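User: Hello, beginner here. Can you help me understand these amino acid letters and fold codes? It all follows right here:
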Amino acid sequence: APQAAGPLDSGPARLGAVRPDWDARRYARAFDTVHGLIGAGDIYQANLTFPLNLEASGTPQALYAALRAVQPVRFGALIEAEGLPAILSRSPELFFRTDAEGTIETRPMKGTQPRSDDPAEDARRRYFLQSDEKNRAENLMIVDLL
């Protein structure tokens, strides 16, 4: 079962220079494709990424510990499964977490505001989320996604 990421024995880890697989022209073509799909109404959101290459040495645990040291964000995961590449992830937002009872928790950043102990401030934040077009759209998209 997945475990919360705790302190890891880093050991030696090294990452070389990061090299993108795509040049600026290929990325621009992909961006134009996504923009066209949004304009046509085929999609309304996309996460456009591109492949990177780098040399790495060390165990997945050591690499994850090194990543944690340079990306001090709240959430992360190291996933290892026999016969598959390790997945190392760091993020300021929680996509999802489950517990033993099957409860699913999410903590998206877009389209959200932190709660306030002050009722007036809490009401102001709620109104902002309801009335601000950009934040309302982001909130609806993340709710649809989740």
